[in-house]
Amino acid sequence: MNLAFREAEKASIKDEVPVGCVIVKDGIVVAKAHNQTIKNNNSYSHAEHIAIQKALKKLGQTYLIDCDIYVTLEPCMMCAGMISLARINKLVYGASDEKSGMIDSNIKLKNIKHIGAYPRKIISGVEKEKCANILSTFFKKKR
Q1: pLDDT tens for residues 16-51?
Q2: What is the C-alpha to C-alpha distance for residues 102 and 9, in angstroms, rounded to an integer?
Q3: What is the pLDDT of residues 87-118, one digit of tens each?
Q4: What span, in angstroms and rounded, lies between the C-alpha atoms of 32 and 41?
Q5: Residue 10 needs a FRET pair 20 to 30 A away by CA distance; which of 23, 46, 56, 70 works?
Q6: 3-class SS at 29?
Q7: Please, are residues 68 and 24 in contact by the beta-carbon 8 Å criterion?
Q8: Across the chain, where does the E strand assignment appear?
Q9: Nearest 5°: phi and psi at 30?
Q10: Cα separation of 71 and 95, whole Å?
Q11: Is the dihedral of CA 53, 107, 124, 88 positive or negative?
């Protein structure tokens, strides 16, 4: 989670919403990313999306079955869908997202019937205060 947090810090410096993501396979980092929606002028350039694309390309695979994903903020609907479609083994996230989070806060991902795959394990609240603070500080500066 510390590496994901460092990615969130990079996003904040670039005036992007500070969310960071890291994908790990067998204890080795295969991809890391942070939000780049402003840089890419693209509303779906979320940290998870970019990291998943990088991991798939690096590993030369269609799925990330043996991979774990660490993200500083509870994934939104789009990212939750990508994590499921990529068949990621384990999801670990920091801060909950009461507004847009779709793992536990709003829609409970595992309660949606007929989705082909879910992360086998979901761990929430890892470094949640640290992850929430970088977001609240960022948005306070914006206002």
Answers
A1: 999 999 999 999 999 999 999 999 999 999 999 999
A2: 23
A3: 999 999 999 999 999 999 998 777 777 776 88
A4: 20
A5: 56
A6: strand
A7: yes
A8: 20-25, 28-34, 67-73, 90-95, 121-123
A9: -105, -20
A10: 9
A11: negative
Three-state DSSP state, 70: strand
In a 13 Å sphere around the CA of 35, the CA atoms on its Cβ side amount to 23
What pLDDT is stored for residue 44 in this prediction? 94
By annotation, the residues acting in catalysis are 48
Give Cβ neighbours of residue 118 (< 8 Å, ≥ 6 apart). 84, 109, 110
CA distance 86 to 96: 22
Rounded CA separation 101/59 (Å): 28
3-state helix, strand, coil split of the chain in percent (to 5) is 40, 20, 40
